[in-house]
Amino acid sequence: MLKATIDADIFRESVDAISALVTECRLHAEPDRIYTRAVDTANVAMISFQLKKEAFESYQGTKEELGLDITKLKNILGMMTKGGSIRLNLPEGGQKLELSFNSYHYSITLLDVNTIRKDPNPPTIELPGRIVISGDVLFSAIKAASVVSDKIALGIDPSRQQFYMMAEGDTDHIRLELGRNELEELTLVEVRSLFSLDYLKDMGKIMARAEKVEIHLGVNHPVKFSFDIAGGRGHIDYLLAPRIEAE
Amino acid sequence: MRFIEFAELCERLEALSGRLEMITVVSEALPKFSEEELPVVVNFLMGRVFPDWSPLKLGIGPNLLYEAVAYVTGDTKERVIEEINRRGDAGRAVEHLIANKEQTSFFVQELEVFEIYREFERIARSEGKGSQRSKLLAIRRLFGNSRPIEARYLARLLLGELRIGIGEGNMRGAIAKAFGVPSEQVEHAYQARNDLGQVAVLARMGASALSKVQIELFRPVKMMLAQQGTIQEMVKEHGVVAAEYKYDGSRFQFHRSGKEFRIYSRRLEDVTKALPDVVKRLAAATTTDLILDGEVIAVREGRPRPFQFVLQRFRRKHEVSSYVEEIELVPYVFDILFLEGETLIDLPFSERRRRLEQAIPAYVAPQLQSSDPEELEEFYHRALDAGHEGIMLKDLESTYMPGVRGKRWVKIKPEVDTLDLVVIGAEWGEGRRAHLFGSFLLACRSEGKLLPVGKVATGISDEDLADLYALFKDLVVSEAGKEVAFKPEVVFEVGYSEIQKSPNYESGYALRFPRFIRLRADKGVEDADSLETISLRFQQRPSA
Fold first, then answer.
1. How far does the CA of residue B32 sit from the closest CA of chain A (Å)?
2. Dihedral sign, CA of B35, B41, B42, B43?
């Protein structure tokens, strides 16, 4: 059972964050939160998302698994005006999620959860490099890099005490360096990995809204972006597998 | 069963060249599959996703495949196309790209054969807005979880050609051997069921299960086909033969169960909605459950109109009613396969004809029974004078053999030297035709493979060339220099002056003076002429 009221913008932001990677997911409702873990079709990018009870204006939930068509939900929310609240209602064991907004009442048929991939287990990996950066700066760098290339290297240069983002195209090159002054935090270990900008662009749009994004890096290892939503009452981790540069 | 095991089986088969060895390898593998996997694997090994009678079509073109692979490997689509062009084999190219992909992933999920089939079913059922996107996502997921060797066969399966040399013949042999049943029974059950996958399941139950196979309503069976022949030969062989007009229209199968009616095309597609007038006529003329075999022709003032008009009607999906008024269709039925719960295909033709005339008095094709060559010759000329293609001669004792092009049915028509061949490639034209395909590479069927027999460039008008370009542009699999390879889907009817032995083409034959006659939109790859037909024609050539 799920019966809740939530600020429409928070709900929209949550759906956008999930839709950056997947078109459907298993959403878990629990007494104190909702959460989902999902992986994109190529097993390259993962999201771990949760929204605490406190992020809602009112919340009542029991353990339930909802098969959500994220694309459909995004389309519905796209038609709504900004502001206001959304009421969600799923009766015990129900197959349709009722969603009300102003005078609109949607009844959304849930997907059979068995047709949706099971929650992936996040890999257990050590990522020694840690950077805390503003989401806005991060997204700008991703956008700039995608003008010249389809991949970007993220790394820390301990000797120069810098976090760098570097993209190399066939003819052009772009490098953004940020020192300790421009970052909230920076661990001084040598790390570097290469990532596909296709994925990063989609994640970047979501992260741009976060005041602080924690980046975890290793050497030719995945990257983890960790940030809060809904004023700290929700949290998202994005994980992205690296590209290994051809010899 | 895991898909990797299927891929490894394919790889073993691909390395074999002997027919018997291949049959043995497949026959040893088949018993290992579960009941739900067996029919899927039987079809997959023949490079088919769904059996012929199934209305489901995968509808995945080369473009969608390239996009999915590019996403998974982290390459651009152009890079994928480049690799395919370089290798000339999409399967091997995709295998290489997956093996050398830069993009890593968190994990791979083991692909299961049956799960892939279920995914294909979902893809085939998705339609309308967003269906392209969901197809793309599904294919991405499959390649995202593929090992290189799995990717090779997955790509080929999606493009409809597995290239391992398993066609219907070898598969029938393998099923018989695997489950110790007579191959004639396998063949007979296949004719009635039209699905070797299900035949394999029955064969596993034993010979008695196979022998009980019946034709079912709304599950179309292949049509019996005719060879080319002569009046003299037929009379000499069979004495009294049945002669019917050979109509220049489109073959159909009509199924009736109570108040439900369906019409299937030669390719066994459900064309009921496109032919409401024909359905109405046949529905009014019959009263019981039955399956009829016939030909529908377009007429104007009592004279047949060219085949193209019939085709326009068959392919119509929208505004059907205005076409119904414009092009009048008349059905002629000449066989009956099923009547009130009874399968009739094993009865002699004379008996089927008797039941046909009782079951449906109208629309039965006129028939002449005679052993007099002169009388038959006269009938032939009457057919031509009335605007028909020629005549059919049928052995009165013959059973109905679905899908078989045997000697029991023979066609007599003036221009005999045409073949229906699959278009597997083209060359870009020159000069003002530089942006169009100028000549087309043709192939015949041979045990699941398509073997080239020549190119055709003459007989194609500028208008045809433009139409053909539009038809083929989305089927391009690869390009090398001026040559383009197509996903095999389209069939041409091609005329020629002579068949010759030739080392230039893989089939071992070449056509002399090939010319384009028409597009056979009513035929699919599986209906194209086989290597057997070509070698038979070669042996029967006048100079031999």
1. 27
2. positive
Find all residues with CB under 8 Å of A115, minimum gap 6, and list them: A67
Q: How far is A151 from chain B (nearest CA, A)?
A: 9
Q: Which of B104, B108, B109 sits opposite A244 (nearest CB)?
A: B104
Chains A, B: CB contacts within 8 A come to: 58
Please indicate if any CB of chain A lies within 8 Å of the CB of B79.
Answer: no
Determine the 3-state secondary structure of A119 from DSSP: coil
544 residues of chain B, pLDDT tens digit each: 999 999 999 999 999 989 999 999 999 999 999 999 999 999 999 999 999 888 898 888 899 999 999 989 988 889 999 999 888 889 999 999 999 998 999 988 899 999 999 999 988 988 777 788 888 888 998 999 999 999 999 999 999 889 998 999 999 999 999 999 999 999 999 999 889 999 999 999 999 999 989 999 999 999 999 988 899 999 999 999 999 999 989 999 999 999 999 999 988 889 999 999 999 999 999 999 999 999 999 999 888 888 878 888 887 777 888 888 889 999 999 999 999 999 999 999 999 999 999 999 899 999 999 999 999 999 999 999 998 989 999 999 999 999 888 889 999 988 667 899 999 999 998 887 888 998 999 999 998 889 999 999 988 888 888 999 999 998 999 988 889 999 999 999 999 988 999 998 999 999 988 999 999 988 889 889 999 999 988 887 766 6
Domains of chain A: 2-115 (3.10.150.10), 129-240 (3.70.10.10)
Using a CB-CB cut-off of 8 Å, the residues of chain B touching A71 are 130
Give the residue among B59, B153, B138 at the shortest CA–CA distance from B98: B153
ipTM of the complex as predicted: 0.88
Distances in Å between the alpha carbon of B241 and those of B46, B251, B371, B392? Answer: 37, 22, 6, 10
Distance from CA of A243 to the nearest CA of B (A): 4
Instruction: Give the H or E element holding residue B128.
Output: none
Residue ranges of A 8-67 with Cβ closer than 8 A to chain B: 23, 39, 41-44, 46
Is B246 among the catalytic positions? yes
Its pTM stands at: 0.80
CA gap A111, A239 in Å, rounded = 25
Q: A interface mutation test: which of B102, B103, B109, B125 has the most A CBs within 10 A?
A: B103
B135, B177, B222, B246: the catalytic one is B246
